[in-house]
Amino acid sequence: MLPILMHFRIRKDGHRAFGFFFPIILIWIILAALLIILFPFVLSAAILTWRRGPGRMLLLVYPMMATVFWHLSGLHIETKNVENEILIDFQ
Predict the structure, then answer these.
(1) What separation in angstroms does the CA of 43 have from each of 21, 29, 65, 77?
(2) Region for 24 from its dihedrals, namely left if φ exceeds 0, alpha if ψ lies in -120 to 50, beta otherwise
(3) For the chain, what is the domain count?
(4) Global confidence as pTM
């Protein structure tokens, strides 16, 4: 499932945490429109380079990107150093 929200939080030692939720669905809408616009160019480039090899990989870019974006849901990243603590959570 595609993540819809991203929770981002920064906490510094001795300070209150700063965090916000970002609606990633807006990025998916813009990205989908961009991919639809670019598809004819990718398809023509794939047809022109089919015999030399890169054409097959160009056609696989769209399914590979969809797989990566689909598996972002549930990704939880926490980093911490001496001064800062950062959380990025895809929901």
Answers:
(1) 36, 21, 16, 36
(2) alpha
(3) 1
(4) 0.70
In 3D space, the residue among 19, 9, 18, 12 whose CA is nearest the CA of residue 82 turns out to be 12
Q: How far apart are CA 23 and CA 44, in angstroms?
A: 34
Q: Which DSSP state fits 91?
A: -
Q: What is the pLDDT of residues 13-71, one digit of tens each?
A: 888 889 999 999 899 999 999 999 999 999 998 898 888 778 888 888 889 988 988 89
Structure tokens, 21? 């939720």
Domain range holding 34?
5-90
User: Are 73 and 3 within 8 A, CB to CB?
Assistant: yes
Q: How far, in Å, CA of 58 to CA of 49, rounded?
A: 9
